[in-house]
Amino acid sequence: MFKRLMVSLMMVILSGCGYNTLQSSDEDIKATWAEVLNQYQRRADLVPNLVNVVKGYAAHEKDVLTEVIEARAKVGAIQATPELVNDEQAFQKFIAVQGQMTGAISRLLAVAENYPQLKADGLFRDLQAQLEGTENRIAVARNRYIAAVKVFNITVRSFPSNLTAMMFGYKTKPSFTVENEKAIALPPKVDFGSPATVNGH
Fold it and tell me: How far apart are CA 51 and CA 81, in angstroms?
């Protein structure tokens, strides 16, 4: 009876000290991070077909094609697990290679502008549309992750929940950063008109 009372009392104390918030926000981070990974994987899956279509019309653009292939290989070499958000260094490496992928795809699409027959190819146009949709989904997933991390990190740093966080080993999670914070609120744009660009990564 006494033991049961103590357990109940402990749960009440922990609840009032942010334990439940830490638990729920940690689960939110896992869910939103999984969606970020899902969308980045969707983009990586589009790359081989995109490269093959471009190669069919612009095989001599070897430097750009190689850059995209190498960028995708670097992305695939990273073990993008849920635990990645607990390792600042690994997280930043992941973000860096995704940025390289964004730049490589942007340059590939810019090259495509020089080949009217390629731009008119039905498969290429379909891949363009899929890529644009994926870039938008990446932005949405990133923003949700950023919001989830913000809630969690505030809880970890605030009193008295910071005491609970220390007791159970919770630490702040890394998040995405951009030079222009306003860019976070804007969906990435894949411009297939004038030289193609992909904003946000």
Answer: 27
Q: Is residue 62 part of a domain?
A: yes
List the pLDDT tens digit at each of the 201 positions of the chain. Answer: 545 544 444 454 444 578 888 889 999 999 999 999 999 999 999 999 999 999 999 989 999 999 999 999 999 999 888 888 999 999 999 999 999 999 999 999 999 999 999 999 999 999 999 999 999 999 999 999 999 999 999 999 998 888 888 888 889 999 987 543 444 344 444 443 433 333 344
Q: Which two tokens stand for residue 95?
A: 């973000």
Structural domains in the chain (count) = 1
Give the Cα-Cα-Cα angle 156, 138, 182 (nearest 5 degrees). 70
CA distance 114 to 54: 11
Question: CA nearest 85: which of 38, 32, 159, 134?
Answer: 32
SS3 198: strand
What predicted TM-score, i.e. pTM, was given to this entire model? 0.78
CATH of the domain at 65: 1.20.1440.20
Structural domain including 83 reads 2-185
